[in-house]
Amino acid sequence: MTASALRAILASDRVTHVPGVYDPVTAALAAAAGHRAVYLSGAAVSAIMLGPPDLGFVHGAQIADRASTLAPALDGIPLIADADTGYDDPVPAVWTALAYARAGISGLHLADQAGPGRGGRPAGTELADIGATAAKITALADQVPQIVVIARTCAHPVRGLDETIVRCRAYAEAGAAAILPEGVDTLEELTLVHAALPGVPLVINRSEAGGARPVLSDADLAGAGVRLVLHPVAALLAAMRAASLAYRAIADGGTAEPVDRMPWAAFTALAARDDSTADLDARYVPRGLQT
C-alpha cells in the first residue's frame, strides 16, 4: 500500500519534500510533522552505525535492517531508501530490492556510478555502462513491482547535460518510475530534462553534502516536472548540532539548561503514540510537531 501511495505522489502535479529519517524517533517526528514520504540515507546509516558517513561499504542488508525499525513509526507513510549503485548486476539488485520490500521500504534509488564515488573520489567520475544500468532497472521493475524504482544518473558533473538526458531517457524506457538527475540544479536545465522526458517524474537531491545550490520555488520545480525533493541529512545534521551544543553546555556549566530541548513530556507522548496511554502531563502535545 505504501508503494501505491508513493506512485500517487509521483503522479501528482505538486512537489513533495522528503526529509531524511534514521531511527524510530525521527520517523515518528516526521510523521507528526505531516510529511507524505520520508527517506533513509546510506550516509546516515553509515554515520550512525560506523561513525564516518559514506564509507562506501554499508551493505543493503544493513540499510534494510535499519529500515525495518522505522516502518512501525510511519503509519503507512512511504519510505524511500538509498540503494547506492544497486550492486553489480541484476541478480544482486533484485535481491536488494526484495530485502528492502520485506523491510517496509516503498521505493529505492539506484545510481549509475561504476564505483560508490566515496573515499575521496567525486561522485560520478566513473560511470557504469548505460545498458548494464538499464538491465538492473528492468529486472527490478519486472521482478519486484512492489518497489518503486528511482533511477539516479551521476553523468552531469563529468559528461554534461546531453549525456545526462541520454541516460535519463534510457532509464525511463527501462522501467524506472522516476529519474534523479544528480547535479542538475538550475531551473533552465531541469526544464530541458523535463522536456526530453515528457510524463516522467523528476526527483532532485538537496543534500548538504552537495554544497550550495540554487533555491527554486515549489511552483517552478513543479513546472519543471519535479515531484520529489530529497533532504537526506538535514535532520541528522540538526540533531548533531543540537547534541554538540548540549554537550558543550554541560562541559562548560554543568547543565544543559541554556540549550533549547524537546520537553520530556513531548518525547514520552511521541513514544507512546496513543493518547490513552500517554502521560497526563504530555496531553498538551498536539498531533502536529511541537518542540
From TrEMBL:
Keywords: Lyase. The keyword Lyase applies. This is Methylisocitrate lyase. One of its GO terms (molecular function) is oxo-acid-lyase activity. PANTHER family: CARBOXYVINYL-CARBOXYPHOSPHONATE PHOSPHORYLMUTASE, CHLOROPLASTIC, PHOSPHOENOLPYRUVATE CARBOXYLASE. InterPro entries: ICL/PEPM (IPR039556), Pyrv/PenolPyrv_kinase-like_dom (IPR015813), Pyrv_kinase-like_dom_sf (IPR040442). CDD domains: ICL_PEPM.
